[in-house]
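Re: Re: ligand-bound prediction request (bumping)

Still looking for help on this. To restate: I need the protein modeled with adenosine-5'-diphosphate bound, output as structure tokens. Inputs repeated here so nobody has to scroll up.
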Amino acid sequence: MCKIIAVANQKGGVAKTTSVRNMAYSLGELGKRVLAVDFDPQSNLTASFSEENKILKTTIADVMTKAMDEEALPNRGEYIYTHGKINFMPSSIHLSVVEANLRMEMGSEKLLSNILEPLREEYDFILIDTNPSLGPLTINALSAADSVIIPINPEFYATMGLTDLTKTILKIRKRINPDIQFEGILMTMCDMQTNLHKEVCLEVTEAYGNGMKIFKVQIPRSIRVGEANRYGMSVVDFDKKSKAGLAYDEVAKELIAYGN
Ligand code: ADP
Ligand code: MG
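Reply:
Sorry for the wait, this slipped through. Here it is.
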């Protein structure tokens, strides 16, 4: 059974892309069939998968445009690429044009869902990286997803905006996607030596721990993450002993254990 997971938080810089990249890698290493979907016009995830300057001809922007125009979609082979054991669907800056068009299109929330549904048989996990907003792209991602992971960077403003995000998810559950679940909150870039991070983690657990799973493992802040991103690698692949990489392995195991 395939699980489609959106990784969402309208705040930028909370490690959405990094989490998708590394969870995809770890799930792949654990023998799962994984598709990572870049659904952010900034295309950071795409950059982390593709060799420099390599031009990816067809992206999710083209597929979304076809879907919006009710045209036949390209062959899967044209927009699903391979990197090691992972498949990925790249994005491009043109996805921002798609976003603008989605605002004017009626009933367009399910377009991404319609693209991903037929792929369920081929994957165990489909991970969607989203852009930092609660606009039509994120709505499409949440409408396509079985569950959502919310990465949080435990800084002072971390929990601000979390209410808007959970409200949006509950609205989507009511109006578009009745089965969407909260997969959990993932603490990223943690430095548990600092009181601030300890306090914020405690605050989040107190505020949300009753209704929502909070991943047991926290992702430590590590210089290795940025370095790995720069070389288009996952953290574990870049440095087998990196604590951040090993933490993402644990997240992948939790995801598998949690199942459907
Ligand atoms: P988002 O997709 O939410 O905007 P990113 O995944 O792009 O966030 O991460 C934002 C920045 O933080 C990037 O420069 C990334 O390399 C860095 N980063 C992410 N996770 C960690 C970590 N565990 N330790 C150190 N830096 C991290
Ligand atoms: Mg990102």
